[in-house]
Amino acid sequence: MADWLLITNRIFVTSKWIKCVFVSLLLLWLGACANLSDFGGGHFTDLFSSDEDEIEIDEAEIAALQTLVPIQPLWQKKLAASKTAVFSPVYDNGALYVAAEDGRLVKLDPATGQEIWRVETDSQLSGGVGANYGMVLLGTYKGEVLAFDEAGNALWQAQIPGEILSPPKVDSGVVVVRTGDSRLFGLDATDGKRIWSYQSVIPSLTVRSFVGVSIARGAIFAGFPGGKLVALNLFTGEVGWEVTVSQPHGVTELERMTDISSLPVVDENQVCAVAYHGRAACFEMSTGNQVWARDVSSSMGMMIDNHYLYVSEEHGTVIAYDKSSGTVAWKRGKLGSRKLSGLMIVRGNRLVVGDDQGFVTLINRQDGSLLARSPTDGGTILSRAEYLPDGFVVQTLKGGIFAFALQ
């Protein structure tokens, strides 16, 4: 609780939550479009790009990528493909947990991929996996939160209003769940009973995303449609501060969309977020005061280390910013794809990113040089890679689980 006192020096009072009413507008617009990328039906960021926005991948670029050494494969598994959901593997307490839309939850040995146990939940899953403190958490389209222990035994089931599109998080006895319409709920980790809820005012047209929340030092950091970043008390749901990462611009609803549709990142002193069609910005954790901001668009998010803030920009570029000043340290394009996944820092100076062609690429996080690249099953990789003791693992929309080794 003491750390939370750092970020409660001002309270922002929100107005009543406005229900999202974008469905009819979106359907009308879709009828006029013929060349839309398929992102599994559950993430609509790419619906708002046009042919003019696409980066052409020339033969020289592909040839250069083919010369990269492959990443050493460790093992692979197959789950059911996702139609409308995005799942993230999670490593916790020496085990790897993976899930699929058909209701399956599986515990794997992270070194070999050997199945330890599986649970058939008999639910259509839409959010997961979250794991911490001996708990494994899933969400469904019907707003069910499913909690299991490390042996696969059901602990409890809770009901909240709204579909759950991101992994529930648990920290310090509180399970935090986010619904697709940007409501947050705090549940008691012992029995699933609701402790608090939070509703944000959202624009009439938004990106439907699988973004969750970040938790650090007794606080929840969450980005919202309209470019807002909010800090909440983990235990009470009370708002500590609210800031604007990016202001809407343009005339039409589509042009004015500036949603934060990826996870904020946190270090010892600051929290950073990036908006679609907007900016990346860093703020003091204790006060919400802006440290710096730069114009950039991303729906897939960022990663932070001791020196840099890395952003998966729209159209297939990774940018490294000095995290103290926002100065561009390096910029890496020519990755063979115009749509990248979130980023993950792995062993040494390596940064891993996936793409919509099913490739994973290792980048030197000091200078942006390309180190290695390997295919998976050709399925889109939207969630960022997950840490393993001997490497990392990714999950594709085709249901492929691919683990790679790093020396």
TrEMBL record:
Among InterPro entries, the record links this protein to: BamB, PQQ_b-propeller_rpt, PQQ_rpt_dom, Quinoprotein_ADH-like_sf, WD40/YVTN_repeat-like_dom_sf
| Superkingdom of source | Bacteria
Q: Which UniProt keywords apply?
A: Cell outer membrane, Membrane, Signal
SMART domains xrefs: PQQ
Enumerate the subcellular locations listed in this protein's record, separating them with semicolons.
Answer: Cell outer membrane
Q: Which Pfam families match?
A: PQQ_2
Domain Pyrrolo-quinoline quinone repeat residues, every copy? 102-331
**GO biological process: what's one of them?**
protein insertion into membrane
- Which GO terms of the cellular component aspect does the record hold? cell outer membrane
Q: Which Gene3D superfamilies match?
A: YVTN repeat-like/Quinoprotein amine dehydrogenase
Keyword Signal attached: yes
Describe its assembly.
Part of the Bam complex.
Function per UniProt:
Part of the outer membrane protein assembly complex, which is involved in assembly and insertion of beta-barrel proteins into the outer membrane.
Family membership = Belongs to the BamB family.
List the PANTHER family hit by this protein, alphabetically. Answer: CELL SURFACE PROTEIN, OUTER MEMBRANE PROTEIN ASSEMBLY FACTOR BAMB
Its recorded name reads Outer membrane protein assembly factor BamB
Organism equals: Nitrosomonas stercoris
* Gene of this entry: bamB
